Amino acid sequence: MESLIPALLTWATAQGPAWVLLLGALAGWWQHARDARAREDALNDKLLTAAVEGQKQTYEAISTIREALIHINRGRP
């Protein structure tokens, strides 16, 4: 896409100022969309990391409870 920008800018300049403004608006929209996607990807990474950490903590808690129950049951006849 970046390789098309100089050609589009040359073409828009030849067409007139309205086309240059339109091209600028489209470029701004494109950059905004790319930034939004990057923010979304970063948020998804954080959510996935939190979910994995939550699973680890749940597993550790279940393991601790299991070990405690085994210890309690060993003391019974």
Give a summary of the structure in a few sentences.
Keywords: Membrane, Transmembrane, Transmembrane helix. 91% of the residues lie in helices and 0% in strands.
Secondary structure topology:
Blueprint: H1 4-15, H2 17-74
Transmembrane segments: 12-30
Keywords: Membrane, Transmembrane, Transmembrane helix
Describe this structure in words.
- It is a single chain.
- By secondary structure, this protein is mostly helical.
- It has one domain (4-74).
- It is 91% helix and 0% strand.
Can you tag this structure with a few keywords?
77 residues, mainly alpha, 2 helices, 91% helix, 0% strand, transmembrane helix, transmembrane, membrane
Total number of domains? 1
Q: How many strand segments?
A: 0
Radius of gyration: 29 Å
SSE series: HH
Helical content stands at over 70%
The structure class reads mainly alpha
The average pLDDT is 90
Question: Between the first and last Cα atoms, what is the distance in angstroms?
Answer: 75 Å
Strand content: under 5%
What general form does the structure show? rod-shaped
Keywords: Membrane, Transmembrane, Transmembrane helix
